[in-house]
Design a protein that fits this description.
single chain; mainly alpha; MetI-like fold; 2 domains; globular
C-alpha cells in the first residue's frame, strides 16, 4: 500500500504540473490583453503597478511569465487580486472557501445519507410501484435545470411563504456588532461539519466488534446523534448560537437545491450499481445458503455496489468550485463559485487562476482518497 501511495503521489505531481500548463495557456489564449486591464485599474496606484507587474511576471515574454507562474504556485504565492487590490489571492480563497465547503459538504452528506439507502432498497425491490415512483423522482431532480429549480425554491419558500431570505448569507442588522467576525463563525462551522463527518466515519470502526447488524446500526446512529447534540450545546453555550443560526437560515435554500440534485444522482447511481451486483453468482450462492435477504442485501450486495457511489461522492467534493457557480449566483452566496465567476467577468485573472489551481489540487488529492477507499471497501482489491 505504501509503495502504491508513493507512486500515486508521483503521478499526481506530474498531472498537476500538466494541469498548471493547461491553465496558463488557457488564459493566454483568451481574447484581449488582461495586462491592459491591470494597468488601467483605478484601484491600483501608479507607483505600485511596476512592482506588481514584476511580482506577477507580466514584464517578460510568455515563457518568462509561465516560469514565473509555476514558481509562484509551488511557493504558495498566487499573486494579488486586481479586483480586490491589495488583497492576496490566497487570502480571498481562505475567506470564501469555508462558505462553499459548508454549503456543499452538508448538501452532499444529506444527499448521500438519503440516496444510498433508498437506491439500495428500490433496487432490491425492483419492478414494484415504489421502484418506479422513486426512480422517476430521482430522474426529475437529477435532470432538472438548476436555475429553474433555484427559481422555484425562491418563489415558494421566500416569496410565497416568506420563510427564508431570497439571497445573501448574513442578516446585516444582526452582524452590526458581533462578538466575532463572520469568517470565524464559518471556520468553526466547517470544523463542526468535518468533526461530525469524522465521527460518522469512525463509528464504523468503533462498532465493528458488535456482531448483530441491528445493534451495530443503532450504536452508530447514537454516536452521531450524540455528536450533533454536543455540537449544538457547544454553539449555544458559547453565545454564538444566534449567529450560526443566521448563517444556517440563509444556507437552507442553496443547500436544499444542491441536495435535491445530488440526491437524484446518488440514488440512481446506487440503484443501477445494485442491479448489476445482484446478478452476480456470489449473490445467488449467498441466497442458496439460506442467508436472510437483509444480510445478502446489506453485507454482500450493497458493499460492492457502494464503490461507484463512493467514487461519485468523493470526486464530486473536488468540484465544489465549478459546481457552485450556478447555485451561488442564484442565491447570492459569496463562496468560491461566485468568486470565480466574478473574477472571470472582471478579468481578474490572478484570482481566477488561483481558484482553478486550488480546484486542481483538491481533485487530484481526492482521487488518491478514492483509491485508498476502494481497497478498504472491497476485499478483492489489493495494491
Amino acid at each position: 500500500m505504501l509503495r502504491f501511495i508513493l507512486s500515486r503521489l508521483v503521478q499526481i505531481a506530474i498531472t498537476f504540473f500538466l494541469f498548471l500548463t493547461v491553465v496558463f495557456l488557457l488564459f493566454q489564449a483568451m481574447p484581449g490583453d488582461y495586462t491592459k486591464q491591470f494597468i488601467m485599474n483605478p484601484k491600483i496606484p501608479p507607483e505600485a503597478r511596476k512592482a506588481l507587474q514584476e511580482r506577477l511576471g507580466l514584464t517578460g515574454s510568455v515563457w518568462d511569465q509561465y516560469i514565473h507562474y509555476v514558481r509562484n504556485v509551488f511557493t504558495g504565492n498566487l499573486g494579488v487580486s486586481f479586483q480586490h487590490y491589495p488583497r492576496e489571492v490566497w487570502d480571498i480563497i481562505k475567506e470564501r472557501l469555508p462558505r462553499t465547503a459548508v454549503l456543499f459538504l452538508v448538501a452532499e452528506l444529506v444527499a448521500f445519507a438519503l440516496g444510498y439507502p433508498l437506491g439500495k432498497y428500490i433496487a432490491w425491490r425492483r419492478g414494484r410501484t415504489s421502484d418506479y415512483v422513486v426512480t422517476v423522482t430521482g430522474i426529475l431532480f437529477y435532470t432538472i435545470f438548476t436555475p429553474l429549480l433555484a427559481i422555484i425554491l425562491l418563489f415558494v419558500f421566500s416569496n410565497a411563504l416568506g420563510w427564508f431570505r431570497s439571497g445573501g448569507f448574513l442578516t446585516p442588522s444582526l452582524w452590526l456588532r458581533p462578538p466575532v467576525q463572520p469568517q470565524t463563525v464559518f471556520l468553526l462551522l466547517t470544523a463542526t461539519v468535518l468533526g461530525l463527518l469524522g465521527l460518522w466515519s469512525g463509528s464504523f470502526f468503533l462498532t465493528k466488534r458488535i456482531g448483530h447488524p441491528r445493534p451495530r446500526a443503532w450504536t452508530r446512529r447514537g454516536l452521531v446523534l450524540f455528536g450533533v447534540i454536543l455540537a449544538t450545546w457547544a454553539w449555544w453555550s458559547s453565545g454564538l448560537g444566534p449567529y450560526v443560526w443566521d448563517i444556517v437560515w440563509h444556507m437552507f435554500l442553496p443547500v436544499l437545491a444542491v441536495t435535491l440534485i445530488s440526491f437524484g444522482g446518488t440514488m440512481l447511481l446506487m440503484r443501477d450499481s445494485m442491479l448489476e451486483v445482484i446478478r452476480e453468482d456470489y449473490i445467488t450462492t449467498a441466497k442458496a445458503k439460506g442467508l436472510p435477504d437483509k444480510v445478502v442485501r446489506d453485507k454482500h450486495a450493497a458493499r460492492t455496489a457502494l464503490l461507484p457511489t463512493v467514487t461519485n461522492f468523493t470526486i464530486g467534493l473536488g468540484f465544489i468550485v465549478s459546481g457552485g457557480i450556478v447555485t451561488e449566483t442564484m442565491f447570492s452566496w459569496k463562496g468560491m463559485g461566485l468568486t470565480y465567476l466574478e473574477a472571470v467577468l472582471q478579468q481578474d485573472f490572478p484570482l481566477a487562476m488561483g481558484c482553478l489551481t486550488f480546484t486542481g489540487i483538491l481533485v487530484l488529492l481526492l482521487h488518491l482518497v478514492v483509491d485508498v477507499l476502494y481497497a478498504l471497501l472491497d476485499p478483492r482489491i489489493s495494491y
